[in-house]
Design brief:
By secondary structure, this protein is α/β, with parallel strands linked by helices. 31% of the residues lie in helices and 16% in strands. The chain folds into two domains: 105 residues, NAD(P)-binding Rossmann-like Domain (Rossmann fold, 3-Layer(aba) Sandwich), CATH 3.40.50; 179 residues, 3-Layer(aba) Sandwich (Rossmann fold), CATH 3.40.50.720. The strands form two sheets. It has a seven-stranded parallel β-sheet with strand order 8-7-6-9-10-11-12. It has a five-stranded parallel β-sheet with strand order 2-1-3-4-5, with helices on one face. The protein is elongated, with a radius of gyration of 22 Å. The two termini are 29 Å apart.
């Protein structure tokens, strides 16, 4: 690795995690140089979240822009990173386990009738709905079998649920019945009593949770979306809830965010709204992965997580 000091520029919007990221990177690599945007340094690498064009205009010689997170739809939508600068995404970095916990919570919430019991509590009403003689767990369909979705599918299966998985290209996961491509989508949906969306946002997945998709599910299905808000057609979800096609939904991501106060999802009795918290990026795990990626790039070695802009992930 070159002897000259490596300079890192750190930028983020939203929750200000920049000081904590810099402190953790300093702990791991005290000899590197760090600055928080908009400081002007000759940065070799930029760690970014929704970065402005000005950052790249002032740092045209960056070796890479490292996206602080696994989802890269936001950075691609901004179109601020010049084509000659590689975008590197984080992989898992401690988020997959959180995603699995969130999805499993939703599955159990639906399976054990917790929405019904919550409504009964508000009415001081005592009634059991557990059919112990004919216990039949719902089949869970996971859309997206990448690092996150694959982990989610395996964790849910480990709890004894039948899990089906669907992805754009063929995958093979032990214990998971896998489907691939548009031709197999309807078959995948047809027996998914709980639908978990873990897909990245691309042109092909935008609006994928629509009327046609929801109608292909068994009646009374439950929807969990931890993918991206733009994958959901909100009016179609509300219509499916009103008709009983959907029994309920656990929704973590929305378009736009924050979810507007006038959205009917807030007050719907069978919808749980969470404010994009299914998985957060743990600073220690993320920084360890960032350091490893930078060291590999400095040694001229291949690096995983380089984004294919044409594909969208």
């Amino acid at each position: 690795m070159p002897n000259e000091s490596i300079s890192i520029l750190v930028q983020s919007t939203g929750i200000d995690v920049v000081p904590a990221i810099i402190n953790e990177l300093k702990r791991l690599k005290p000899d590197w140089q760090y600055a928080a945007w908009p400081a002007e340094i000759r940065a070799r690498y930029a760690i970014v979240w929704k970065p402005p064009k000005a950052l790249f205009e002032l740092n045209p010689n960056l070796k890479a822009a490292i996206n602080y997170g696994a989802g890269i739809d936001a950075i691609l939508a901004m179109d601020s990173v010049p084509a000659h600068i590689p975008i590197v995404r984080l992989e898992d970095a401690g988020m997959a386990q959180q995603m699995a916990e969130y999805a499993l919570y939703g599955v159990i919430h639906h399976d054990r009738h917790m929405q019904v019991y919550a409504a009964q509590q508000r009415q001081s009403h005592w009634e059991q709905h557990e059919d112990r003689a004919n216990l039949q767990r719902p089949a869970v369909g996971v859309m997206g079998l990448g690092e996150m979705g694959g982990h989610v599918a395996k964790k849910i299966a480990a709890f004894g649920y039948e899990v089906r998985g669907w992805s754009k290209s063929p995958r093979s996961l032990e214990g998971i019945k896998c489907f691939a491509g548009s031709a197999a989508f309807s078959e995948f949906l047809s027996e998914s009593n709980v639908l978990v969306c873990m897909l990245p946002l691309t042109d092909s997945t935008r609006g994928i949770i629509n009327r046609k998709t929801l109608e292909a599910l068994p009646k009374g299905a439950f929807l969990i979306n931890a993918g991206r808000g733009a994958q959901v057609v909100e009016s179609d979800v509300l219509a499916a809830l009103e008709s009983g096609q959907l029994a309920g939904a656990l929704l973590d991501v929305f378009d736009p965010e924050p979810l507007p106060k006038e959205s009917a999802l807030w007050a719907h009795p069978n919808v749980i709204v969470t404010p994009h918290i299914a998985a957060t990026t743990p600073i220690r795990d993320a920084c360890a992965q960032i350091v490893e990626k930078i060291e590999r790039m400095e040694r001229g070695e291949s690096v995983s997580g380089i984004v294919d802009r044409a594909v969208g992930y």
